[in-house]
Every structure is written in C-alpha cells, then in structure tokens.
Amino acid sequence: MSLSIKLCLVLLLGLILLPLPARAQEKKAGITVGQAALGNVFVPSPNPISLPVDLSGRADSLSWELFNGWNVLVAHGKIPLTPGAGKTTVQMTLATPGFYVLKSSLLSGNTIIAKAVTNLAALTPYDLGQVADNPFGVDTHYGQNWDPSSVPLFATMGAKFLRDGSDWGVVEVQKGVMKIPASFQRAMNLANAQHIHVLQTLAFGNNLYYPDPALPSYQAAPYTQEGYDQYTRYCTFIVDHFKDRPEFFEMWNEYNGDFAQGPAAGRPEIYAAMIKTACPAIKKVNPKAFVVGLSSVGIPPDWIGETFKQGALNDLDGVSFHPYGYSLAPEIMEPSLAKLHALVRQYNHGQDKSLWSTEGGWYLIKSGQLGNREPITDFVQAEYLVRAWTVMLSQNVSHMFWYLGRDFGAFPNMGLVTSDTDPRGKYAPKPIYVAYATLIRQLTGFTIARREKSPADIYDYVFTKGDNQCSVLWSRSPADIALAGTDPVTVTDLFGAATTLYPVNGSLNLHLTQAPVYISGKTGPLVLPLFHLQIPATLAKNQAFPAELSVSANPAPSSLTFLYGSQQPKMESPMQKGNASVFPFRLDPRPGVEEEIWTPFKLDSDGKAIFLGSHHALLFDPVTADRFPRLKGLDVLLESITNNSRGNAAIIKSIHYVINKETKELAVNQELAPGSTHDFQLPVDHLQPFTLYPVSIVATLDNGTQVTATNDVSYNPVPRHTIRVDGSLDDWDLSHGIDLDHATYVKLKEPRRDAKDLGGKIYFAADDHNLYMAAVIEDDVFFQNYTGANVWRGDSVQIAITPLMPWTAGEWPAGPHEFEIALTPKGPSMAEAGKLQRPDVKIAIKRQGTQTIYEAALPWTDIDGVKGPLPQFSWATYVNDNDGHWRKGYLQWGDIKTLSGMQPFYFNSKP
C-alpha cells in the first residue's frame, strides 16, 4: 500500500472518530403527534384510531398513556423503534365518548429523552343540518383574520350560532367605499355551509369620521345625528350584503364599557339615539333581520333601564348582555336575570323579549390568585359553562355564547379549543369543548320544566321534551343525595360517558359535587340517601388517604364492589354504626396531578351500579403555610400552617419572618397532627393602622423542609360611632385613616403631577345600622359630567366591600359589592355599580376650594343583606381623576377586583 493511500485512510479514520461537534451533530430528540381528524375530534370514534407520530433523535422505544377527562389512565402501550426511525403510529381505542389526553414519551433505554401531550375527543353524532335552532353559540374572531378552517369544529360540537363581525373601520377604509374582507367572507360562507347561523356585531368607530388623536378609532362612538347616519350606512351595507341567508345582528359591543369613549362615553341616551336611527334602516333593507342590542358589560339595571327609558327597546328584537363570571360561581347570575326580564316587561307593555347572552366565560385562575381557595382549572372552566348555561336556560335566556372559540391573543386560556400553534395540537379540544358538546346533545329540544326544591347548595333543574325528562344536577359542596325512583335511569357525566343507575329500595343514589351530571329518565323528589361517602377534600400530593363508605339500606345490597377511577380498593369488614354498615378503605395517590383531582366512582351490587358520583380534592404539599397572613391588632401577626398529610405528623421547629423592615425569629417546636391546622401568633412592633406592610414568612420543619408565605398585610380598625351625614366632618375622629399619598397610582393617560393633582385621606366609622365613610380628596381640577353607571369616568370614589376575607374556603358565593360615589350634575350620588341608588343611602358631597369632601352612610343590609354590623369585612377603593377630557387615572388602595387584594377591616376595634 502506498504512503498516500495510508495517509488517506488515517485521515478518514480521524474524521470518523472526531467527537461532537466536530462532525455533524445528531438531531435533538423530539416527538410530534399528528392528527387523524381536524383537531383530533372524532365523531363517532373509529376504533382503533391511528395517530401519525414524527420522531427525531436516536431512541429505542416510544411509550404512551391515554387518560380520560378525569385524568384516569384508560390505556397504555410501548412501541419498539428501529434505529433512525423518523415515523411511527400510535393506535388506541376511545372506548366511550369523552375528552382524552395522550401522553407520549421517547425513550433511550429507560431514560425519557422527549415528551409530548396531545388532546383528543370522541363525540356522538349530532347532525346540525337537522336542527332548526338551538340556544348554543360561540364567539369567534374571523373578522380579525382567524383562519376559517376551524369553523367545522364548532359545527361538530353542535353550536348553531357563531358571533363575529367585520368592524366599520375594516369595512370602510376609504370614505364611501365599503368592502367585506375576503377572509371574513370565506368564514361566513363556510359557516353557512355547516348550517351555522351568524350573529354579526355591527360595531366600533371609524377614524375616517372621528379623527380624535386621543382615542383609538374603535372607541370613538358616534354622538351626533350625522354620526348616527354614518354608522347606519355601514350597518345597512352589512345587512344588505348578507340578506340572502338567515342573519342576526347586534348593535355595537359593550357600549357601557370601554368601547364607547369620547363625547358618547357610554351614555344610554346616545346609544338609544344611535339604535333608533340604525334599526329602522336595517329593517327596511331586510325585514327578516333579527336585531339584538345593549351588549352590556354585566347586567347593570340602571344603565339598561335608562336605555330602555330612552326608547331603545322598541326597535330591538332581543336584549343582549355579557355576564362574565371572572372568579365568581355561575349561580350568582340567577337573580340578575330575573330582574332583567322584569325590566324588559316594564318598558315593553308587560311583554317579554328574547334575552341573548352574547359573551360569557371564565378565565383560568390558580388557587388563591384572586383570594379564592379553589382554582379555576380547565376542568372547573368546563363545569362552569354547564352550570352557567343551565341557569340561563332555566331563566329563559334564549341564546348563550361562550367567549372564546379558540385560544387567541390576550385570551390564551379562554378557548374551547387550542390555538393554531399549540403544542397539544392545532385546534385541539379542551375539556370545555367536550363538556359543551355533551350539554348540547343532552338538552337540544328540551325546555325548562322546573327547579326541584332542594337544600341551598344543591341544584336540580328538570327539562322536558314531550314525555322525555332530563335533569341536570350538581352541588356547590359535596353531598350524598337520593331521588325517589323505581326504574333505572341513565346518568351521563360532564364529558358524555353514560352509566345505568339502578334503584335500591325505591331510591336512586348519587354523590354530587360541583361537576354537573345529567339524568335521563323519570325521577321524583329528594329522599333520604342510603349511601354516604366520607372522603377528604384536601390532600397531600402523592400520599395515600383514607375513605369510608356507609350503607344504610335494609336489606343491604349484596356483592358490593367499589371502583374509584381505575382503583378497586379492598373494602375491609364493615363496622356497625347505628343502622349503617361502614366500610373503611384506603386509596392510592394520583401521581402527576399537581393542583386538584376529580375522580369518578361507582358502587356496584352484583354488577349493577347503585351509587355514582365523583370526588373532588385540592392537592397541596405535605405542609403548607397560608398564603394570606393577617394582623391580629398592631402587635400580632397571625399565620396558619397546615399538615395536609392524612397519615404523618409534622413538627414546626422555627418561624422566620420579616415585616416593616424588621426581621424576627421564633422557636416554636409545634407538632401538627395529620390533617390539622395551627395558628401561630407572631409578635410585631411599631405598626400603624391603615398601612400596607409587605410580609415574608419562612417556617422550618424538623426535617429541614421550609414552607413560605408572602403578601401585604394591614390592620384597619373601624370605631363604633354614629355619624351625622351632612357634609361636615366635625363629628369624625380624623386621627386615623387611609393616606392616599401612600396608595399605588395607576397611570392611564397622564402622569400625576403632585399631591395637589390627586391625594387626600379616607376615614371610617360604624354603628349597628350603617358603615360610614368620609373622604377628603385633594384635586386642583374637578370634573364630573356623568350620571348613573358612568360616574366612574369622572372625579369620583369607588369602594368595594364584602363579608368574605381572603382566607375564605371554596368558591366565592358572591363578589364584592362595588359602590360609586360622585358629585354629579344632578347632585350627590351613591349607588352600587350597575344598580339604582337606594333611598336609604345617606350621602353628602361638597366642593370646597381644591378639595372634594365626601360623606356617606351605607346600611349594613346593602352588603349581602346582613341585618347587623359585620365584625370583620374586606374593603378596597379607587379614587378616580378626570381633568376635563377622560378618566386619566386613579389612586388605588387595595384592589376592588380581587379579594386577595382587598384589605381586612375590623368593626368596634381600636388602633
């Protein structure tokens, strides 16, 4: 062999043996699970389903696990991979209708080198073309350039309506020239082909006509007859363009919110004038056009009533509103809907008009984020839709729309399906999508018959269609119930899985939680339940926990089998307690679940289900410090620490804490029994009332583990004193109160110049009948040219008060009561937001130099109807500033919109 050949071989061998990155690097390991149908939504589910999987990197195998909507493992598998395999296929069976999550892992040996999560859904067929109408709709933004390819997913779900629109500023870019954008037209054509009606919003200003540099064009609402005429030309163009198909229209969007600024400023008389100009012209172009209006933020009776009083109702076929829940449970809307019906009858000669909830929804919220103990997760969001829609159907709301169809922009977790770039899959279904589809399939064609009488926390709505009956049931707190019945019924869960429930001794037994169930079949009133499940509602992560089942049926059912998710625990020999046989058992933890568990269970007797339900529990670390420490006076900081374990004691050795820039250490050596909570009283010094103090707490356990809590705390005493409300503060103790110079200023339009631009103090007192508030607000320019629901736009004071404290457990039963106080052109005004001023509210306001002096007496009965003084409550305020153009900013103490930001007040206490 020649020398040159030897050298070449040596060089070649060197290149082969070069370490990375000298030679080409291997591909990074990764998994991409594809779709076998749009969004991986299957109707009906072909079994088995084959999902294509793209792979990168070197791996030996792909393992996968399939979980149902309750996060219970229902199938799994492992696929060997050949070296360099770039593709494979996962085959699975979706055995029952429902929501599913596929979790895939790429393995090298036993090491996971890549993961992927994919959402899927299996639905029963629903032919929208055979449904002339149903109440169910979805808000979309095809007018904001969404890809129209997602339209069929909403038809598959069963929504008969989409709500969308092409805004005036988009349609008329050049004066006098109007054109529908091609992408919006494609979406509307596709919706029509899918048998979907579209409620089109006729909305927003146009900077061709309103070139106010201080306002975005969409906020510049018409406010003159010329403006109404210009807006009407846009409306009639849209109506004429779409008059060859069933079309529905909505006049503007959230006019009483931020979408009508400038001189219009959400004024009901201007909105009514705009309606009275545009609606007759719309009907002239298309007499069959169905027009709804108001589109209000919430259901504010004073703004709605004033709009009706101005004559807007006469030209509308329906009334629309947006009852967003935010952090509140859905049931609170029930009385507001009844009042809205009454308002319509009052201004419509005693006759009803259809009510349309054209936007509504809940954000995802972590536990404690807004002061609520319980989180709003994907699962809770799904159940809230069902509960809200059921309540609205029971109150004869004709149509309801969920905001939003898919995750989008500023609303990344409001969608029924994911965005087009989500790693879970393009337009992949979320739990709420399947819950909505299940609701539609259960209640299409049914009408409300009644709400059965039941304890306060239990909701039982009965719907009928001919001789068929479907009941929707849930409970705000766990409850064992029984309904009278002698025949089997079908119980369908949140995601569409159905089980036959058999009666025992003339009763059908259920364990209800916040997750609704549907019962198809005849049932009677509530009777005494025969079964009780005792199971913890708070658990330590990754730890087993005890439970017990109590059976009081006589004779007792035979061959009992208890199935909890995929577990079948061994039931110990029963203990006798009175007339009941009690079976104790233990349940294993649910690995990989971080925040909460929702687990279905059933009790079988000889293979037949006789007791059904679900278990809900919040999951915590084994030991946790309460995230809401609080002051007990000005010398004691109170912190609660909980042992969430159901089997192990915990010992707190010491607590380190920082408040008012002072650091303290306290040795405690306190043992916490399993499932117990201890309140630690921590000494503090040199604190002042009505002052926010950041606090940091670190508790150390005997095993070295540390638990922490950080928050703002304050101690705010309210002395017992009866005040004469006359605008003079002579009878007030002005030594203690909120100093607004220490409040957080939130800039909206212009910066605060100095304390004379906005500042002052707020004071409190109370007696057996009233909570008194006084404020001395320093403001060199006073401007308040608004009335009713719009007073917050001008100089004013907004306060929020609630009997709840930030450490309240469970769902909020109601939100804070928000009151607006202002010196309006019609005189002093104080009213709860969205409501008319009550005659028993005493108010005095006067302007004195550069100061505005507010004084008010708020009856305790206006706060959740309490009959006497609240010993403790939460409070917050905004002090608004307007120098003659717009609401430019506000001083904020606490947070009106979130319970966790509100501050605790204590009646009949001293600093």
Describe the fold and architecture.
With 911 residues, this protein is mostly beta strands. Strand 37 and strand 38 form a beta hairpin. The strands form 10 sheets. An 8-stranded parallel barrel has the order 9-10-11-12-13-14-15-16, surrounded by 5 helices. Strands 42, 44, 47, 48, 49, 52, 53 and 54 form an 8-stranded mixed β-sheet that branches. Strands 20, 23, 25, 27, 29, 32 and 33 form a 7-stranded mixed β-sheet that branches. Helices cover 14% and strands 38% of the residues. Helix 6 crosses helix 7, helix 7 runs parallel beside helix 8 and helix 9 runs parallel beside helix 10.
Structural class by secondary-structure content: mainly beta
Which regions are unreliable across 5 or more consecutive residues at pLDDT < 50?
1-25
Q: Tell me the fraction of residues in β-strands, as a range.
A: 35-45%
Oligomer: single chain
Number of helical runs?
Answer: 10
State the shape: globular
**Strand tally:** 54
Rg estimate, integer Å? 31 Å
Largest sheet: 8 strands, parallel, barrel
* Share of helix, binned: 10-25%
Spatial sequence of strands, sheet with the most strands: 9-10-11-12-13-14-15-16
What is the mean predicted local confidence, pLDDT?
Answer: 90
Q: Roughly how many Å apart are the termini? A: 101 Å
